[in-house]
Structures are given as C-alpha cells and as structure tokens.
Amino acid sequence: MNKTGLIYGINGPVVYIKGNTGFRMSEMVYVGKEKLVGEVISLSSDTTTIQVFEETTGLRPGEIVEATGDAISVTLAPGILDNIFDGIQRPLSEISKISGAYISRGVTVNALDTSRLWDVHMTAKAGQEVSGGFILAEVPETKSILHRVMVPPNCSGTLLHVAADGTYTINDTIAVLQLNDGTEMNLTLTQKWPIRVQRPVNARFAATRPLVTGQRILDTLFPIAKGGTAAVPGGFGTGKTMTQHQIAKWSDADIIIYIGCGERGNEMTQVLEDFSKLVDPKSGNPLMDRTSLIANTSNMPVAAREASIYTGITLAEYYRDMGYDVAIMADSTSRWAEALRELSGRLEEMPAEEGFPAYLASRLSTFYERAGMVRNLNGSEGSVSIISAVSPQGGDFSEPVTQNTRRFVRCFWGLDKALAYSRHFPAIHWLTSYSEYLGDLAPWYAQHVSPDFVDCRNQIVAILNQESSLMEIVKLIGSDVLPDDQKLVLEVAKVIRLGFLQQNAFHPEDTCVPLLKQLKMMEVILYLYSKSKALVTMGMPMSILKEGNIFERIIAIKYDVANNELEKFEQYKKDIDAFYDQVIEKNA
Amino acid sequence: MSIEYLGLSEINGPLVVLEGVQDASFEEIVEITVDRTTKKLGRIIELYEDKAVIQVFEGTENMSLQNTHTKLTGHPMEIALSPKLLGRTFNGVGQPIDDLGTISGIKRNVNGSPLNPVSRKYPRNYIRTGISAIDALTTLIRGQKLPIFSGNGLPHDKLAAQIVKQASLGDNSSDEKFAIVFAAMGVKYDVAEFFRRTFEESGVADHVVMFLNLANDPVVERLITPKVALTAAEYLAFEQNMHILVILTDMTSFSEALREVSSSKGEIPSRKGFPGYLYSELATIYERAGIIDGVDGSVTQIPILTMPNDDITHPIPDLTGYITEGQIVLDRYLHGQAIYPPINVLPSLSRLMKDGIGEGYTRADHQDVANQLFSSYAKVGQARALASVIGEDELSPIDKKYLTFGRAFESEFVGQGEVENRTIETTLNKGWELLRLLPKEELDRINTAILEQYYNAAE
What we know:
The complex is a heterodimer.
Chain A: E1 4-11, E2 14-18, E3 27-31, E4 36-43, E5 47-52, E6 64-71, E7 73-76, E8 83-85, H1 92-99, E9 118-122, E10 129-131, E11 135-140, E12 146-150, E13 156-162, E14 166-168, E15 175-179, E16 184-187, E17 191-194, E18 203-205, H2 216-221, E19 229-233, H3 240-250, E20 255-263, H4 265-277, E21 291-297, H5 302-321, E22 325-331, H6 333-346, H7 360-368, E23 372-375, E24 381-390, H8 400-408, E25 411-412, H9 417-421, E26 434-435, H10 438-448, H11 453-477, H12 484-501, H13 515-537, H14 542-545, H15 550-555, H16 557-560, H17 568-587
Parallel strand pairs in A: 8-21, 19-24, 19-25, 20-21, 20-22, 22-24
Antiparallel strand pairs in A: 1-2, 1-6, 2-5, 3-4, 3-6, 4-5, 7-17, 9-11, 9-14, 10-13, 11-12, 13-15, 15-16, 18-23, 23-24, 25-26
Helix pairs in contact in A: 5-6, 7-8, 11-12, 11-13, 12-13, 13-17
Chain B: E1 4-6, E2 10-12, E3 15-19, E4 28-34, E5 38-48, E6 51-56, E7 68-76, E8 78-81, E9 89-91, E10 106-109, E11 120-121, E12 126-128, H1 132-137, E13 140-141, E14 148-150, H2 156-166, E15 168-169, E16 178-187, H3 189-201, E17 208-214, H4 225-239, E18 243-249, H5 251-264, H6 278-286, E19 291-292, E20 298-306, H7 315-323, E21 326-329, H8 332-336, E22 349-350, H9 366-390, H10 397-414, H11 424-435, H12 448-455
Parallel strand pairs in B: 9-17, 14-20, 14-21, 16-17, 16-18, 18-20
Antiparallel strand pairs in B: 1-7, 2-3, 3-6, 4-5, 4-7, 5-6, 8-10, 11-19, 12-13, 12-15, 21-22
Helix pairs in contact in B: 2-3, 6-7, 9-10, 9-11, 10-11
C-alpha cells in the first residue's frame, strides 16, 4: 500500500501537504482526484512540498495525494524514436487521440505503445554470465536505427532462460536472469530509469572526434567534439533555433534528441513536419527515424519544463549505452533556468542573482557533465553531445544563465544582433565565439581531411581579426586612405564573410557542406589572397585588381560548385593564375 | 444553495484574505457583495486549508473587513460563447457593456489549455496587408503572432487599424468568415474610440468583438481581459471556422498589472520588479494563436506593446520577442522624418515568412529581394555613421550611393500613405527600383539568375 497525504495548500504549480508523510525526495506522486502527476521537491517534519507537472486549477485542500514509490522516471524501450513526448515522456500523439487538439489534465497514457509488436532477434544465450549493459537482443526500431536491448545497469547474474526470436511487445518477458543473490528477474524490452540520475558508464575519455555538422563556421572555425558541449546564446531573432535545426538535420550523430523547452508550439510542429519529410543523407530514410522530440511549449506547465531537460538527457544516455553517438538539442536552457526561478520563487527561497536560485550554477553543471564520450558498461563506445540554446535577457551575455553556462561548456557560438539585422546567417560572430576542442580535434582533421586543414583555418581567422582592427580605423576616416595591402585584407575578409561564413540554409547544396569542400573553399580563398598580395607588393593598386570579377566569382563558389563536383576547384585556381598573369601583362 | 461568508480577515491592495472557507478550489471564481449592493468578482490565487487569498478584479475600494459577503461559484473564470458575440462590446471580464443583453451559450474556462503541437498545422498562408515594409520584409502569416513594438506617441494604433482594414489573403479571395477580436488593456478612452470608429468606417463593425478595459478601469481586471478575448477568439476560430485577427493593446499595461499584484502578494521579484513567471504568463497568451490541423479557422495575433523609454531590452518587449514569431518595430527617428509607417526594418522580423513566400505564394524573387534590401539597408547605417564623422563629401562614391539608396528606401519603400494599399507586385517592383540605385556587384544576396532577370528589366 502506497503512502498518502492530504493537500493543505496550493500556490500555482506548488502543493503543500501538512505533517510527516513519509514520502521520498524526487518520488513521483499523483495529486488530487484527477491524479495529476507531481514530484516531491522538499520534505520537512511538518510539510511536504510537491511540484505538479500539470495545471492545478480546480484542486481543493483535502484532496488526496498518493505516492507511487518510484522516482520520476522514463520508460526506455523501442518506440522512443520517431515520436514526440511532453516534458515527462507522455506521447503527445496518444494524448491528442484522447483529449483532442488541446492537452487536458490528468490524462493517463503509457509512455510507449505497449501493444505494438516488435521483431526481436535474440543475441544472448541461456547460461551466459551477464552484467549491466549486456546486449540481450536487437530490435529494428526504425529503418535507420537498430535498438539494442540491454540488461539494466546494476544487475548481474546468469541467464536462466532466453526466449526465441519472434515478435514481442515491450512488456513481454524475453529472458529470465538469476541475480547473484539467487532471486530471479524477468527481463523485458523495457527498463525504467530515474531522470535525475546519470546512467552509469565504464569510463569517460577525452573527445577526439568532431561532430561534423556541415555548417562551415562550426566545422571549420569552432568545431565541437562528439561528447562535447556547446552553447548558442543570442537575443531573439538571431537564429538560435535555426542553428539547432541545421545541426539536428545535418550533423553526423546517429541519434538526435530535440528538446523544445519553453519554446513556440509552431516550431515543434515545424520540426515534426520537416523531419518527417526530409531525408537523412546518411541512411536515405526520413530524419524522424533517428529523432525523438520532447516538447514542452511555453504555455505548458512550468514544472514539466524543468523536468523536460532531464527526460531528454536520460533518453540520450540510454541510446549512448547501445553504442550510438547521440546529440541533444536543448532549446532553450534559459527557459529551463527560468522554470527553476519560478518554482524557487513559489517556494520562497532566498534568491541569488536576478531572482535566480543560488543552485542555478550547480544544476547547470550537473546537466552539462552528463555529456561525454564514454566506454559503456558493455564495452561499446558512445557519446552524448549537448548543444544548448541560451536566450539571454535583453540579448545581454552578462546575465546569470549565459555566464554560468559559459563556465561549463567548451564551445561558445555567440550569435550577434548586428549580423542578424543585416541577414548574415548563421549570425555566429567569429570574434566572440570560441571552441576549446580545437587542439583536441587537430589530429583528427590532419588524418581524415588534410594536414593543412587547421593551418588554413588559422589563416582565415587571422585575416578576420586583421579586418576587425582595420575596421576601427575605417569607421573613423573611411577606407579610401588605407594603403593597398590593407585594402586587400578588407577585400579578402569580405570574400571570407560572404563566400565562406555566410551559409544559406534554404539552398539545396549550401545547407550542408562536406569537410573536403570546406577545405577546398578555404584553399582557393587563401590562394587568391596570396596571389593578390604578390600583385599588391609589386605596386598594383587595388582598383586594378578589382577590375575583373574574380572576387565575386570566388564568393559565388558556394552556389556554383556542387558538393559532389570538387574537381571544379582546380579550374578556379587556374582562373586565379590567369587573373594574375593578366594583371601583370596589362599593367607591367 | 451555497454558503455566504461574512467579512474578511485581511485586505491588501487588490488582494483579500478569507478564512474559514470550505471546499474552495484553486483558481475558483468568487462573488463578493459589498454593503449588500455592489457585486465584485474575485479569483482564488492561493489556498491554504481553509484560508483563501483572493484577487479582486474590480479593486478593493469601499471594502472593509466587515461589510462583505463572499460566495463561492464552484467554477473557474468562465465566459459564455455563441456566434452572437460578433458586433458586441464587453468589459474586461467579459460582461456586456453595450446594453444589448447577456450572451447565452456554452460556457468555457477562460484559462484555456495548451494546444497540442501534434494537432497544430504549421502556418503557411500569407496575409497581404498592403504595407510594403510588412509584406516584403516581415510578411504576416495566417496563424502567426506578430507583435508591434512601439513607443508612446508613435502611430502604432494607426498601423494596426490600417492592417485590419487592408488585410486580405494573398490570392485576393473574398473572405466572409473573417472577424476581429479586439482587447484593450489599460488604454486611453481615445484609443478605444479610435478603433471603434475605424471598425465602423471600414464597415466591419458587425464582425468585431470588443473587450474594453480602459486606463481608469480596475487594474486587476486587465489580467483576465486577454484571456477572455482569446477564449472568444478560439471559439470563433475553431468551432465556428472563422479566421480571427486578435488585436491586444497594450501588453505593457497587462504586464504592469501583473507586477502590481505580484508585489502585493509579497513575491520575490526578478528583473525590474516583474515576477519570475512573467514569461510563462505572456506565453499562455501569445501561444493561443495558430491553426489546428483539419479545422478551417485560424487565430492570428497582433499584440501591441509600448516599450518603456523605447528600450527593446526592457523585460516586456524582450520576453515577448522570445515567444512571438517575430516583431514589427516602430522607430522614433523615422517618425521624426514624417515617414509613415515608421517601421525600422532591421530589428523587425517575421519568423514564419520563409515558408509562406516565394514561388507559388508571392513571387520567386521575394526572399532574395528581402535579403538584399535588409543587407543593403544595414550598410546604409555604416555609411551614415562614417558620414557623421568625416562628412558626406568625403565619402567614397559607393558609400554615397548607399546614402541615396537609404533615403529613397525610407521615403518611398517604407513610407506610404495611410490609405495606400499596395499589391505584392508593386511592392517587389519598388524594391527592384531601389536596388537599381546600387551597382550590380553590390547585390551579393541575390541568386545570379534572378538578378539577371530583374536588375536590367525595363520599367
């Protein structure tokens, strides 16, 4: 018999129970007659405090609160991919079948479809000694992803019985495990895991492989490693969501968990519509086949917003345990922090900066530390990368959420209002952004792309930095008075900005660019720079260099050279040589 | 038969505390009778066993700890809905104030429920407003929430009225099932009157539902006004299959009312004294726009807010911008140049625009033209900054061209008459006219083929 208590007070999403109820911290509870889902967030000898994940309108003091005995958990089994859930893993499409277009309260639905039959291929044999993480069976969950059914962590023993290959629901027993203490345990396709607890791993190791996104400014200038963390801060309208969509679509992660945390409903609908139509370039199947969406839109209850981030990362860790590279898009962690603030305010806790609770930093750090490249319990390698949008108040990066996030992430892709206003997208500013993974990933780039890659990248960055200091002068006296070699730097920097950094997400070729093309583009731009520099050194003025259209043609490379026609780059080098000879010939 | 509770135990600003209540529920509406004559409505916002904290919508004037009778109604805030709402005027809590009698019909909880993202349909139909700066650069889409960020003294009301008068679907199809829900929160009498007159003059008065909470009406009432209005809008859109344009003005008054109540409750403030839940509160209003899959109607929102001190980073415009699908920003400098509508296009944005324009919607070159205008106009700003330091005469020829372009853009493209209704063709052609002021090689955002097709095209 589970423990119960009676509601004493209600304040927004927070409910109080008088007296010592014997509930446990983080325990899931059902509140009131409608059985609203809630979680215990604080206990004292005379009061139990509960946050409710649904609207509390209509609750009355004296209604019953029932403990479930379990912490707030997610259900882990086939069916997570190609699906959309709310903040506490309730499937939104099932909810819509029950309650129509609007989400009503107290809907009881199973997280995953319990009646669907899955094709299960058993890989374990009876008599085997197994421990947590051991792969029992394989289920083709979607066309793209093979779901590996594992022994839950913290369990080990001998398999007494293993079912035959066949079709099973997620609750059918597929094996019987005799634990080391002699008790028998039925294993199904399902396991449960509390969302606030990190799933155990064998070992963590340093990141050495990049998460290739096909976005030039990210891959080349500020790469993120698989298992890395990145923050995308920016005011409204600067393109946070767009950046996340692009990475979710084109990155080479195996699985994408997209968390819409306190964001717009239409955006989630868009992801759902687009990802069902768009084709994953790697597998040729719809992108939704490798994607799971968690939607807590901004008008859904605030407590579930707080939980949605943990739900997402737990799902990600589960797929990592199977040996996949998982990337989480968290849009936006500021909304999550604000949910913390709102609940903290309701609990009348002493605020720290700007009303945020003092534990903001520690919550952020525990979240980001759940990312990483790891060796799993079963020996496979997997990773969880976190890419989180941050929505700073007033676009001001000095506010607490951005500042605290900065401490715990290693990639910072700062979005810039001025760039967004002039429609330079992605509006990631090359001077404020950084990546600490550059050194870690340099060997990979040297080995897999070209030994020159990092060198080219550094030259490009150097030119952009020179441009920014020259612009200080130009702002005061105009560009006409600059010497020609400095004018050339401005001109080449313009080529880099327009031709390389700017990337058109709506152009079929330009939306995702392979690393080799990125390298070739850099090489051509740098080749043009070195040839032009030689001309300028010979005393040719910039006005003569600009007579032809070579600069414009290099800018247009991103559109003119398709991703599979890299041999065309040779022609551009020849054209630059011709341009060089021509200038000398005419003006010698 | 319900119990009446005599007296109160505490009155603090708009909040009163009632003790000894039985069987009250959270967010329940109560009726308070003062001196056995005046009736007021209140809402339970905190509940501890038998003690209820009640927010009184009509204000607590004349109330004492002894002279009140309080009655529980047993339900949250509700409004009666029927198609007869059209053409009627209500106060901020949804009671008729036009002497045409009460509305009878189905009753709905004004708090609404979140729309399931699975049931939504992504909005793609563009609405032609006839205003170049909006149609070309921040296109309004049916089902969008696109606020106007304005300042005191700027013509946001005129602009909203012009949009209402001229709005039509892109294909000019006639549209009888169109209606307007107008919610005023703490606006001046003149403003409400201006809108009423505009609706009458343009002959849409019988397709308008008005909810008025004027500047001298009770402050707390404002907190419920947008919710009442949106409940009516959702009913008309999703149950009567109408296309509803909701105008909410002024969201700043709404947010300030929220702050007032929050401080009476003794809550911990976050930025500028606003409560931490301002974002959630605004979101529950703005997110009630959209289209439901399989239903004919739609709710499009144009909230208007005045930025305190023209500061776009103030919490109200800031949080709004994070929720809404773009914004139209009005600018005092342009207003000072006698340019109407004074839309500053650079910070303005429509997030849904990209999927509702181009081939099949507007014209194939729309996106490119828009990008190029944005990009070129951003350069105008740089040229102007330089000109203010070294003087216009010293500028390079290309910078001078940008200055010419900038002036023409502001006066001819952004600027237009208050009754001028431009077609999308006119607007885009005007865009090309302006772009031709710049040399071809400066137009780096336009696809080469489109550039060839339009740049040299004869007038």
